[in-house]
Amino acid sequence: MSCRVLRLDAGVTLLGGGQSSAQDIAESLTVAPNLFGVDGGANRAVSLGLDLLGVSGDFDSISDATRTALDPSILIETADQNRTDFDKALDLIEAPVILCTGFTGKRMDHQLACYSVLVRQARKPAILLGDEDICFHLSHDVSLDLPTGTRVSLFPMARVVAHCSGLRWPVDGLEFAPWGQFGTSNEATGSPVTLSAEGAGLLVILPRAFLREAVRVLWQGDPALCP
Known about the structure:
The protein is of the alpha/beta class and 227 residues long.
């Protein structure tokens, strides 16, 4: 397959080679039904008998058995060693939302790199799925409907000023930075949680139960098609 961008009207599930259960993948596919493998993630997809729209990466983690099982026309080799396979895969996808599973839970350096990529690829509506949490980059103003007591964490990847309301511990107008102020384990008060930031670099972390709410506020397609 050539390195053309895949443009889709429905969400995409990016499957990486990190930790993911069959349940994780199934949940993601109910929201984002187009499955795209990222390097070793293709092994997992093939083992579960799942259909892949495409597979990209430098292919250093794909088994011979997986390559034999896949149609060569869906393979997109991205050999650039200066960027992660996750970063390069996002270049290939244009979709209303991109759910990213199998990118956490194993190697810490890979996981940290994924958080950095969320900021690098700020215009992409990408959500990282972990065992208990989801994480996305705050690239525009959002208003989240969250029950009272819901954990809301804000973590900066750069120096950035946040504007927020609807949180138990006010942080409006505070300057966040990785070496300074950050906002773990804040809580929703029951009114809408509004979030915005002056510049790029602020990550939002929510309990995984609120995946669909995150999809709603990040959705970049026809609102009628939002799951």
